[in-house]
Amino acid sequence: MRRFCDTVHVRSGAIGDDEAAPVQFVWRGRLYVVRSVLSHWRERLAWWEQPAVAAVHGDGAGTAGTAPAPQRAGSVLEVGDLEREVWRVEAGVGRVSAVGVYDLARRAAPGTAAADGGGRGRGLVSEAAGTPGPGAGDGTTGDDEWVLLRVAD
Q: Do residues 115 and 76 lie in contact, with contact meaning Cβ atoms separated by under 8 Å?
């Protein structure tokens, strides 16, 4: 399994019981169609690597090699910055290409259960990094920013 931290553009929709699952994503200029969702979970992030913690210690940046958390006014570390929702999906380019397994993640909405996805992202396309996607939480961050974490193909 190869590890990545690449921003991807994702279209969410209903797959099975999950109404906010990724159904398509664009990675490195190619459109991948999700054939099935294999698993969906939440995982905690390393709080000590977040930019808000580094700012408290007088350092302007987080630990090298880590994906930065969304920045907010005042560099406040919130619960949503500490968790992400991950979908393990089976996807391929087009209908006849080989299928691979991809782990896609986005920042978890505080106070939502992993099973229901918080009702966010239904039928929406995420925007480029650093800009809020349509329907983003409070409009201050790109709540629907997705990241490709792992690939097994």
A: no
